[in-house]
Amino acid sequence: MRVLCALLILFLISCQQPTDNKNKLDKSENWTVHGDANWIFNESEIISELDSGSAFIATKLQFQNFKLELEFFPDSTINSGIYLRCTNKALSAEDCYELNIWDLHPNQQWRTGAVVLNQSPITEVQTINHWNRCKIECFDNTLKAWINDQLVADLTDANSKPGYLALQAAGTGKIMFRNIQLEEL
């Protein structure tokens, strides 16, 4: 009987799903809200709409080495971005790395896929009015980003540091994010 119980316990343990170090970041308790936009956290999406101004949400924790995966859906008017390794909870391209989301940027050097003030996009991607997949890897002094499986950024910087992540909405329009997962490396 003891052998049978031991075998049953081993079987049940082997059937458990493996745990990993991925964090889902699509719940409001993971973020602080800043600025003029109305941020809506529903069951599967984070949505921001605004008529003017600028706003962002920032993680409550800082991260250094990580893989961030998410999906985003911008309308044609929104200026958005994914900010990485921000040392303060104030968005600036000098304090953070900004992966831009703005296909119609007036200066196409900083359109979607650019790391603003650091690198123009390697590949031009079209993201307006549909869901897009984004993967970002920050490890030590490197930052790589893919949008819809296209490498858009590959940056090396000796000044890498831990920091907050932030999602931006600026100008006018609507941006939606979903399936936000962060894996610490």
Concise summary:
This protein is mainly beta and 185 residues long.
SSE topology sketch:
Blueprint: H1 2-15, E1 22-24, E2 31-35, E3 38-41, E4 45-50, E5 54-59, E6 66-74, E7 78-86, E8 97-101, E9 132-139, E10 142-147, E11 150-156, E12 164-171, E13 173-184
Antiparallel strand pairs: 1-13, 2-5, 3-4, 4-13, 5-12, 6-9, 6-13, 7-8, 7-12, 9-10, 10-11
Give the number of DSSP strands.
Answer: 13
Q: What is the CATH homology-level superfamily?
A: Exo-inulinase, domain 1
Rg from Cα: 19 Å
Fraction of residues in β-strands: over 45%
The low-confidence runs, each spanning 5 or more residues with pLDDT under 50, are 3-19
CATH architecture type: Sandwich
- Average pLDDT reading: 88
Distance between the termini: 44 Å
Q: What's the quaternary structure here?
A: single chain
Structural class: mainly beta
At the first level of CATH, what is the class? Mainly Beta
**Total number of distinct structural domains:** 1
Major sheet characteristics:
8 strands, antiparallel
Using the alpha-carbon principal axes, give the shape: globular
Would you mind describing this structure in some detail?
The protein has one domain: Exo-inulinase, domain 1 (Jelly Rolls). Helices cover 8% and strands 48% of the residues. The relative contact order is 0.27. The chain is mainly beta. β3 (38-41) and β4 form a beta hairpin. It has one helix at 2-15, and strands at residues 22-24, 31-35, 38-41, 45-50, 54-59, 66-74, 78-86, 97-101, 132-139, 142-147, 150-156, 164-171, 173-184. The termini are far apart. It is built from 1 helix and 13 strands. Mean pLDDT is 88; it is low at 3-19. The strands form 2 sheets. Strands 1, 3, 4, 6, 9, 10, 11 and 13 form an 8-stranded antiparallel sheet that branches. A 5-stranded antiparallel sheet has the order 2-5-12-7-8, with no helix packed on it. The longest helix is centred in the N-terminal third of the chain and has 14 residues, at 2-15. The radius of gyration is 19 Å and the shape is globular.
